[in-house]
């Protein structure tokens, strides 16, 4: 495979890989190290703004059979001038470096930056080097220093097993836009959980599947809450169908989607009050994306009996929902359900028992080429109740 683009994955790389497989197809993706992935699709053809679990994408400009910095840097100096020729003829260049999984110290990184500045000056260009506090620049630094703009260059150097790839960043995750959607919407409710928009976007992608076959989908969220999943589905151009047991939540979703429409997104939602365990959805949607019932929030690890009680309650509610959904959806309907998973202080993950009976409930679990289903658990380091992303297809 001839690789043309390179992704830098988010905090939980397995989820990023699963999302890339869902949107682009597993045959077009190859993991690189523990934080990146390669693709044979050109960077400028990738719908990066739709991806919630990748933080950068870049166009590959060099590949070398070396992983030690002296050899890597020599190749870098050879390929860098070609980028300068593609820059606008006038204006000060902003230059940044991000290094992944390569053995380099701060002094080596600084010297490399100075050498690249020298190459810029030899080409008759002025340049400002963005300083590194770590080998990798964070997304905020890339975004706010305009390193993906006309006069910006961020060089990504990522080590594989015996190979290093060099790419220049073409797009970075717009963290400001995510924050605006999360914090600016008029209705929020911490009691029902605060689903991050980036994760909601990933859930929609995992549910909708390959991009070329999903453009006409209507996405159903049977636990719509304050409408975060539907908000992200609307931005991606999908039809919207939301239901929730609580009338107040349906009203919150309506107000939040009206707010989104006021910001320029076309929004035509179909919203209803309904219990997901018994409701009838008409018309039947093409994809289902939701955060289900996660059980009670926990600030400390419960005793074994209490934990089992919580798990059993979640199992009952979610199984009833899945059986109801299976009774109404045709074969091939794809779903991504964020279901609860509990992480002990020792790091053990407790899953719902219904995951062992998916076939009996009418579903097949999607098999990914590059990740295992059990890896798709989204949680913060200090979080007890995480979200397991269950990607399934109606049998």
Outline:
This protein has 395 residues and is of the alpha/beta class. It is built from 11 helices and 17 strands. It has helices spanning 13-24, 69-85, 106-122, 139-144, 175-184, 197-208, 211-214, 228-235, 247-262, 304-326, 358-361, and strands at residues 5-9, 29-32, 36-39, 54-64, 93-100, 127-129, 152-159, 164-172, 218-221, 239-244, 269-273, 287-291, 334-343, 349-350, 363-365, 377-378, 385-394.
Explain the overall architecture.
The chain has eleven helices and 17 strands. With 395 residues, it is α/β, with parallel strands linked by helices. It has helices spanning 13-24, 69-85, 106-122, 139-144, 175-184, 197-208, 211-214, 228-235, 247-262, 304-326, 358-361; strands at 5-9, 29-32, 36-39, 54-64, 93-100, 127-129, 152-159, 164-172, 218-221, 239-244, 269-273, 287-291, 334-343, 349-350, 363-365, 377-378, 385-394. It folds into two domains: 5-173, VC0802-like, CATH 3.30.2130.30; 188-394, Rossmann fold. The strands form two sheets. Strands 9, 10, 11, 12, 13, 14, 15, 16 and 17 form a nine-stranded mixed β-sheet that branches. It has an eight-stranded mixed β-sheet with strand order 2-3-1-4-8-7-5-6.
Relevant terms:
alpha/beta; elongated; VC0802-like; 395 residues
Q: Mean pLDDT score, rounded?
A: 93
The helix/strand class is alpha/beta
What is the tally of beta strands?
Answer: 17
How many whole angstroms does the radius of gyration measure? 23 Å
Alpha plus pi helix count: 11
Q: What is the C-level CATH assignment of the largest domain?
A: Alpha Beta
Sheet with most strands: 9 strands, mixed
Q: What general outline do the C-alpha atoms trace?
A: elongated
- Poorly predicted runs are none
Distance between the termini: 33 Å
User: CATH topology of the largest domain, anyone?
Assistant: Rossmann fold
Q: Hey, roughly how much beta strand do the residues contain?
A: 25-35%
What is the helix content?
25-40%
């Amino acid at each position: 495979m001839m690789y043309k683009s390179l992704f830098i994955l988010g905090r939980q790389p397995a989820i990023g890989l699963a999302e890339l497989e869902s949107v682009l197809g597993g045959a077009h993706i190859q993991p690189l190290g523990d934080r990146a992935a390669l693709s044979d699709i050109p960077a400028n053809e990738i719908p990066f703004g739709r991806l919630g679990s990748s933080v950068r994408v870049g166009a590959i400009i060099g590949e070398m059979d070396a992983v030690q910095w002296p050899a890597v840097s020599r190749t870098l100096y050879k390929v860098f001038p070609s980028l300068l020729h593609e820059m606008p003829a006038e204006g000060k260049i902003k230059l940044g470096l991000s290094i992944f999984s390569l053995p380099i110290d701060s002094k080596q990184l600084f010297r490399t930056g100075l050498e690249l500045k020298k190459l810029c000056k030899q080409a008759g260009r002025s340049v400002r080097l963005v300083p590194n506090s770590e080998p990798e620049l964070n997304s905020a630094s890339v975004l706010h220093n305009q390193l993906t703009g006309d006069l910006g260059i961020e060089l990504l150097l990522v080590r594989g097993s015996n190979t290093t790839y060099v790419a220049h960043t073409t797009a970075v995750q717009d963290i400001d836009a995510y924050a605006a959607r999360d914090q600016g919407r008029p209705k929020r409710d911490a009691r029902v959980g605060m689903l991050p928009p980036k994760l909601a976007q990933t859930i929609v992608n995992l549910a909708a599947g390959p991009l070329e076959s999903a453009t006409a989908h209507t996405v159903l969220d049977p636990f719509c809450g304050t409408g975060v999943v539907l908000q992200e589905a609307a931005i991606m151009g999908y039809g919207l169908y939301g239901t929730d047991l609580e009338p107040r939540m349906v009203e919150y979703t309506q107000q939040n989607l009206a707010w989104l429409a006021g910001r320029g997104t076309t929004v035509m939602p179909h919203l209803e009050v309904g219990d997901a365990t018994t409701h009838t959805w008409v018309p039947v949607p093409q994809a289902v994306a939701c955060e289900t019932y996660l059980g009670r929030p926990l600030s400390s690890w419960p005793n074994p009996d209490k934990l089992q009680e919580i798990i059993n309650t979640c199992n009952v509610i979610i199984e009833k929902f899945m059986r109801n959904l299976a009774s109404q959806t045709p074969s091939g309907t794809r779903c991504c359900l964020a279901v609860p998973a509990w992480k002990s202080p020792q790091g053990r993950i407790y899953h719902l028992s219904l995951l062992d009976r998916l076939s009996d409930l009418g579903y097949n679990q999607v098999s990914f080429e590059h990740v295992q289903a059990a890896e798709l658990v989204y949680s913060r380091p200090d979080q007890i109740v995480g979200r397991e992303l269950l990607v399934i297809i109606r049998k």
